[in-house]
Amino acid sequence: MLPAPFIAAVQQLIGAKRLLAEAADLQRYGVDRTTIWQPAPSAIALPGSVEEVQQLVLLANQYDVAVVPSGGRTGLSGGAVAKNGELVIALDRLNEVIEFNPIDRSVTVGAGMVTEALQNFAEQHGLYYPVDFASAGSSQIGGNIATNAGGIKVIRYGMTRDWVLGLKVVTGAGELLELNRGLLKNNTGYDLRHLFIGSEGTLGLICEATIKLARPPVDLAVLVLGVNDFPSIMTVLEKYTAAMDLTAFEFFSEAALCRVTEHTGLARPFESQAPFYALLEFEQGGDQLDTAMALFEQCLEAELVSDGVVSQSLSQAANLWKLREDISETLWHYKPYKNDISVKVSKMPDFILEVDALVAERYPSFEVVWYGHIGDGNLHLNILKPAELALEQFVAQCSSVSSEVSELVERYQGSISAEHGVGLLKKPYLKHSKSSEEIALMRAIRRSFDPKGILNPGKLFD
After folding, report:
1. What's domain 97-212's architecture?
2. pLDDT tens column, 162-183
3. Which keywords belong to this entry (predicted)?
4. Mean predicted confidence (pLDDT) in 102-127
5. How far apart are CA 92 and CA 248, in angstroms?
């Protein structure tokens, strides 16, 4: 329970109607897309300005109230879960365009702006925000930055980190910092902006962000290939990236395709089936389309691929993309146990063979679904919960093998989290991606920005 004087002070600050405590609100704002933990926040605060965010954090320090920052709550690692009576500070109302500069190709927005809204704003001004993923219609910019979101365009455009020119943040101590001020070049020592990118709300609340924009890609085509085995995907990737400047290279398994077509009613890309599928996107200018088709013929002759289709219209391209983009939303209905891992691209064939053998040994009756951003070494391993198995039993069984998968990741010098963060879900396995010395330094950095430990307690590490 929150202290009565604290509640009164918050209501006076933001208005009684902006402090929510109804059961439906606690449920809505208390969890992300994970299904393991039950939401149990004490209340939800909806500040309307950076100044209100700062005052809320100062009050939380004064009354020793734990705070969970909240964006679009589309995360998959429990980073936005409030399960121990915390105050959730949701930044939904900080969603406006604050400044746009076409010369600098930059825009400053509130952290609560939905990703798709930023993409649409850029498009309206003849520009492009390339960080894109299936949850773009509900995720928020602040949350994207706090988790350094990646998505489907990383092979060409990189992660969220590559597009953040500046941040306005409120630290766990209640200090207001303006970091980098939108500069492209600023060689003045430690760049604290990058500490907050990927910090999962443990150092401060991101309130505003200055985002770099790009020229939009022109005349995009989508090519989907049926690939005969996983090592062949890597050969196809090597051939295409050597000859073309791709904007995306994704993969998914036949199991993933079956689930998506059953759930959405989308048509398969072609009649024949393949163990795996590769989705490539590229600009058609110059001789790019001819090059893509010539490479397809080479891959057919080498028996790397068995079939393929290239989009002939914008609508067909969109539908082909849906076969990949709708996987996460489709699998969510099956309460999957997810592993979001990465290794060097060159090591992926050997790695995936070892993971398959491990999962087959531990879960001979479970359905395993693979997909991911193959062009940047990011694999999504999903184990679907059997309908007859209780969630608690399912999680317990899957958790036992996650440690072994993480040990395998460590042996391959990979990461236990490629893009979804650590949160609660992967906290036990952080040691497989970070040394004890690194974790000790991370703890010290966290104490520097949040001396009383009120921000997102229990996330990343205890």
Report:
1. 2-Layer Sandwich (3.30)
2. 999 999 999 999 999 999 999 9
3. FAD, Flavoprotein, Oxidoreductase
4. 98
5. 30
